[in-house]
Amino acid sequence: MHPSRILVVGAGYIGEAFADLAHANGREVVAFTASEESSRVLATTKSYKVAACDVSIRESVDRVRSEQGGFEMVLFSASSGRGGADRYRSVYLEGARNLAAAFPDAHLLYTGSTSVYAQTDGSWVDETSPAGPDRETGKLLVQTEQVVLGAAGTVARLAGIYGPGRSVLLRKFFAGTAVLEGNGLRWINQAHRDDIARALWTMGEQSALTAGQIFNVCDDRPITQRDCYEWLAAHFERPLPPLAPPDYDRKRGWTNKRVSNARLHALGWTPDFPSFFDAVQAGLDPGHPMAGSARADSA
């Protein structure tokens, strides 16, 4: 059964793209941002309803239910706003609990992170691989997944997000702050924003198959840090970044693994950008807004 009414909680970089896609496909969409200011700004450019909701507050979520009624699908794509463990607990864990309680009949689809895979040996991981992050933030993401799965929802573990206006790799490369950590052989897993939005759409449209399941959302080709920067250096005729010690103090922990998207492919999804290099070759250049963003990561 295809969802006719969709609630998007967290209409940020990914949530907005998904809401636009769902609306373009004829679905009734209601989108919420975390603040009144951001909702007012977004509402000026959208033909679907946009409002504010603090998902960490049960009363705020209950008010949405009271005012908007029920939905067949709820996309939970909120952001911690770069906060630490306390913020993760309130936004993700409490947010999932609040949404599951307020919309028990809806298909809850949560955008998590492939950072929950803590492997450091460069091995391939899939949805059956252990997810045992050692940082409190990562542990809270796993707990949030358990809430969603317990509500017969779907978990989409997103790799490092990039797309229009957002790429940490390009930003650092063009700013001259990029480095090759250690030997540069740490694996990087990414996914383009538009491929992520279509993956979420696929999961939502096939809720009978995806309910209670986890899906990795990433492109087809993990790349090493060295391969990435050597390719960019050759493509843009710029110097290769220097060597530097690994950054083990990442907020969600330092990992090194290759993420498989085979389960997602089995649903019929294929990425428009099978690799980061495909996106760059599609027209991204030093003057493209993608190169100037400070918001992105790799997982």
What does this structure look like?
This protein has 299 residues and is α/β, with parallel strands linked by helices. The protein has a single domain (5-292), classed as Rossmann fold (3-Layer(aba) Sandwich), CATH 3.40.50.720. 37% of the residues lie in helices and 18% in strands. The chain contains 11 helices and 15 strands. The chain has helices spanning 13-24, 36-43, 58-68, 85-102, 136-150, 168-175, 193-205, 207-210, 225-236, 262-265, 276-281; strands at 5-9, 28-33, 49-52, 73-76, 107-113, 124-125, 154-158, 160-162, 180-181, 187-188, 190-192, 214-217, 223-224, 243-244, 258-259. The strands form 5 sheets. A 7-stranded parallel β-sheet has the order 3-2-1-4-5-7-12, with helices on both faces. Strands 6-15 form a two-stranded parallel ribbon. It starts with a strand and ends in an 18-residue tail after the last helix. The model is unreliable at 292-297 (pLDDT under 50).
SSE map:
Layout: E1 5-9, H1 13-24, E2 28-33, H2 36-43, E3 49-52, H3 58-68, E4 73-76, H4 85-102, E5 107-113, E6 124-125, H5 136-150, E7 154-158, E8 160-162, H6 168-175, E9 180-181, E10 187-188, E11 190-192, H7 193-205, H8 207-210, E12 214-217, E13 223-224, H9 225-236, E14 243-244, E15 258-259, H10 262-265, H11 276-281
Parallel strand pairs: 1-2, 1-4, 2-3, 4-5, 5-7, 6-15, 7-12, 8-11, 9-14
Antiparallel strand pairs: 10-13
Helix pairs in contact: 1-7, 3-4, 4-5
